[in-house]
């Protein structure tokens, strides 16, 4: 399962490796941030169909929710945009108590 946040280039290399191994994978990318979001735009998380992941889109705040959504994206084949923030009713459930808001684009890539 996931570990400490890898630099984004390493996350993309992991995605390439997993795809070469024949894994079905999704890539989650931070596409917009507001306030004190913990990871910058362009940060990545790669997720396989079993829920294994590498990287970070929020420094640990919402990774679990993103992984769950990404597994569904892999199965359904349709990308989606996820939004988390303290103004959102899911903020406290998923732990984004850092004060910012983030938008994450999740797409199946292999």
From TrEMBL:
Signal peptide range: none
Domain of life where this protein originates: Bacteria
Segments forming a coiled coil: none
XdhC- CoxI domain residues: 18-85
InterPro entries cross-referenced by the UniProt entry: MoCofactor_Util/Proc, XdhC_CoxI
Pfam family, one: XdhC_CoxI
Name of the protein described by the UniProt record: XdhC family protein
Organism: Plantimonas leprariae
Lineage summary: Bacteria, Pseudomonadati, Pseudomonadota, Alphaproteobacteria, Hyphomicrobiales
């Amino acid at each position: 399962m996931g570990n400490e946040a890898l630099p984004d280039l390493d996350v993309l290399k992991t995605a390439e490796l997993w795809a070469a191994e024949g894994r079905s994978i999704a890539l989650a990318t931070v596409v917009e941030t507001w306030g004190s979001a913990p990871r910058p735009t362009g940060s990545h998380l790669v997720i396989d169909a079993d829920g294994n992941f590498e990287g970070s889109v929020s420094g640990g705040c919402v990774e679990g929710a993103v992984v769950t959504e990404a597994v569904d994206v892999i199965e359904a084949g349709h990308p989606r945009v996820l939004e988390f923030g303290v103004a959102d009713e899911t903020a406290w459930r998923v732990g984004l108590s850092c004060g910012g808001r983030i938008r994450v684009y999740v797409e199946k890539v292999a």
